[in-house]
Amino acid sequence: MNTKDNPMEEHKIMSMDADKRDRVLNAAMKEFAKGYKNAVTDAIVREAGISKGLLFHYFSTKKDLFLFLHEYALKMLISEFFSLINLKQRDILERWRQIVLLKIDLVHKYPAIFAFVNAAYMGENDDAAVEINEQKATFSDDVYPRLFNDVDTSLFRDDIDPQKAIDVIVFTMEGYAAREASPNKTLEDYEPEYERFLREVDEYIHLLQRCFYK
Amino acid sequence: MNTKDNPMEEHKIMSMDADKRDRVLNAAMKEFAKGYKNAVTDAIVREAGISKGLLFHYFSTKKDLFLFLHEYALKMLISEFFSLINLKQRDILERWRQIVLLKIDLVHKYPAIFAFVNAAYMGENDDAAVEINEQKATFSDDVYPRLFNDVDTSLFRDDIDPQKAIDVIVFTMEGYAAREASPNKTLEDYEPEYERFLREVDEYIHLLQRCFYK
Amino acid sequence: MNTKDNPMEEHKIMSMDADKRDRVLNAAMKEFAKGYKNAVTDAIVREAGISKGLLFHYFSTKKDLFLFLHEYALKMLISEFFSLINLKQRDILERWRQIVLLKIDLVHKYPAIFAFVNAAYMGENDDAAVEINEQKATFSDDVYPRLFNDVDTSLFRDDIDPQKAIDVIVFTMEGYAAREASPNKTLEDYEPEYERFLREVDEYIHLLQRCFYK
Amino acid sequence: MNTKDNPMEEHKIMSMDADKRDRVLNAAMKEFAKGYKNAVTDAIVREAGISKGLLFHYFSTKKDLFLFLHEYALKMLISEFFSLINLKQRDILERWRQIVLLKIDLVHKYPAIFAFVNAAYMGENDDAAVEINEQKATFSDDVYPRLFNDVDTSLFRDDIDPQKAIDVIVFTMEGYAAREASPNKTLEDYEPEYERFLREVDEYIHLLQRCFYK
DNA sequence: TATGAATGAGGATTCATTCAT
DNA sequence: TATGAATGAATCCTCATTCAT
């Protein structure tokens, strides 16, 4: 992930006019949210208002576009995320509450990006799938340490392994999010539920505080 | 879910010679593990050793085959799973250990089925995707209650909500499984890791016992 | 059309049990009413309640079945028609009235046969189309002379060519029938119109009587 | 039928290079002369010298192509026909002679179009068949009134219904044309017969003049 | 850079016909 | 005779990618 061989910085598309580039990338994300195979390049160029030829001038293949986009989306979300989170708060459970609120904000700010990243699967055996999974792995390897390495483990009871406790907290945090997220729901469907989400998250937090903290 | 009006029992394919049917269904699962769109009917018939015409004699469309297969796979796994699990053990953490072992067994017994069910996506907005999601939802609605409704909640500390505690346990159980499962790994890759898995699972179990139980 | 090389008499199907044969031929007519290409052998055997193999035992190809059926239907209609018509009446206009009534009767008695014969086109360039057209030509060559050769030409004005007058009458008779027949109408649609038909036919007859007859 | 919202004018194909478009439409007509089902898209593109993809770029389905073609052919024949006919001549029998000559001209000028329009069936119960029939009905409803509404009925004998007389004339005109036209004949087959045709047409005309006119 | 017409291999589905029983 | 499972060539349509301008 060092800057030297970062494919993004050197990608042809970066020399495109910024406005147009945004149109292309947004159109592509929107289309790829259907899944790689279901996405059609024609729809992308139509939505972006550019020609087929130009798309393939900048991205030599559909796969190239997809891979670039995935990396781009992931990087954008990460940098946005870390620019907003307050890493001063070293109580992991309090941080969790913060993360939940931040995630809700980001989903609203970049709904298309989330939809795209979630849908980015491509079917397991495809050649590009490997690269995608590597990107996702890199994402985790990059993000989780930054989020959870510096937490204040002195808050935990002395008779428990802090790393395992952190794991349980993270699994719960993500498990709950996954349970509430349904592929068929739209942003509007979530709106009326936020209060419940926050209340339930607090209940998990309190439970874990009572059990894991001194 | 009762056997009488189970659409599976009445499916044309059930009148096919059992051996051949198994070849077809296995070939189809293997191919669909790539994802719906990536799967090619030609590959299925080649692998199954039957003609294209015969496949479409039994399944009127690719989608029909896919949907049948998904239901079939889910039902088979569920029934196999429940025929092996000991529901007498009402300590949820002990039951978890059992489930882990059972899952490892089943993954070895039916690797293709697991690969298929995991990969079964179809691209978000397809009409059939809705059916798949319904099947998956039905699966959860059917399986989780049977696994976790009758656990002995008297083991939990009196000052915690047992349902939330169960949630945390289930999230941990599944989160750990998901973290260790990688789409790029084959069965052989897991082999040398089982001891570590079991040790780590035990560590989570002990942590939660110490924190959640009286 | 002489008996010696009449393919019908010698056709394999004639050795089939009469009831079953009727089921087959009716089913086939019904299906071929959609047009040759649109007709599906599966539908025929399903409707007839016989096996695919048996159909192809009796008719070596779909084309054979179609051709046999066409000849069969035409012959049946002709013989039925001539068994009912009174050829004593030698006034061509009176005979026309008779023909109209007879045709209405026959359409009601054998709706499927009429539907089939009308639809029997097969697309011009097809190899079988030639044979069909020959059968239709033979039909005309066979029927028209029997219907119109023996009419009483002495009724016509002396200053007109009787053959041309007969032509005009036949053209009118058939043109009117074609104009009223619509491919989208069913038998029921015609029901309430018969009175109008008969009245209009009479008007043409009177017009031609007044103009052509002495 | 007004030009403004004529769907033809707006069809994608109209943006194709005129030469190529003609090749495509001619090839399609030639192929569809076999009937809708017998026509094969491969043959069309081979004959037109374009790729499969291009055909389906302009016509989203085979049916779309067929329907467009039918409307196109009908419209072209009608406009050509009316641009040539002299509607000053209000004697219907004289007009008939004109129509016959005109038709012969048109059949020579556009043999493929005539072949196509005659063969355009599609099999009775298809949804598109309904549209075809509507187009044909519109055609008749459009053409006949323009041809026969303004004829000079004062020429007819006072004791006959002019409308019925016109009907008889039209039926004769069309009946004779249909009798002489055989689906198996090619243009060359007709060549040596024109003199006979014209003579016979004149005979019918004289017969009807003598009988129907004052 | 920018266009969009053109390509053609690839894929799902149909259906007449065969053949072992 | 009778069955119906099995075949596979034929057909419509899709879509990533190229290329002349």
What does this structure look like?
Chain A has 214 residues and is mostly helical. Chain A has a single domain (8-212), classed as Orthogonal Bundle (Tetracycline Repressor, domain 2), CATH 1.10.357.10. Helix content of chain A is 69%, strand content 0%. The first copy, chain A, is built from 11 helices and no strands. Chain A has helices at residues 7-10, 18-32, 41-48, 52-58, 62-84, 92-109, 111-119, 127-148, 162-180, 187-190, 194-212. In chain A, helix 5 (62-84) packs parallel to helix 8, helix 6 (92-109) crosses helix 7 and helix 9 runs antiparallel to helix 11 (194-212). The longest helix of chain A is centred in the middle third of the chain and has 23 residues, at 62-84. The two termini of chain A are 39 Å apart. In chain A, 27% of the residues are buried. Chains in contact: A-B, C-D. At the A-B interface, helix 8, helix 9 and helix 11 of A face helix 6, helix 7, helix 8 and helix 10 of B. The first copy, chain A, binds a DNA duplex (21 and 21 nucleotides) through helix 3 and helix 4.
What are the salient characteristics of this protein?
homotetramer, 214 residues, mainly alpha, Tetracycline Repressor, domain 2, 11 helices, elongated, DNA-binding
Question: Which SSEs are present, and which pair or pack?
Answer:
The structure is a homotetramer of 214-residue chains.
Chain A: H1 7-10, H2 18-32, H3 41-48, H4 52-58, H5 62-84, H6 92-109, H7 111-119, H8 127-148, H9 162-180, H10 187-190, H11 194-212
Helix pairs in contact in A: 2-3, 2-7, 5-7, 5-8, 6-7, 6-11, 9-11
Chain A binds a DNA duplex (21 and 21 nucleotides) through α3 and α4.
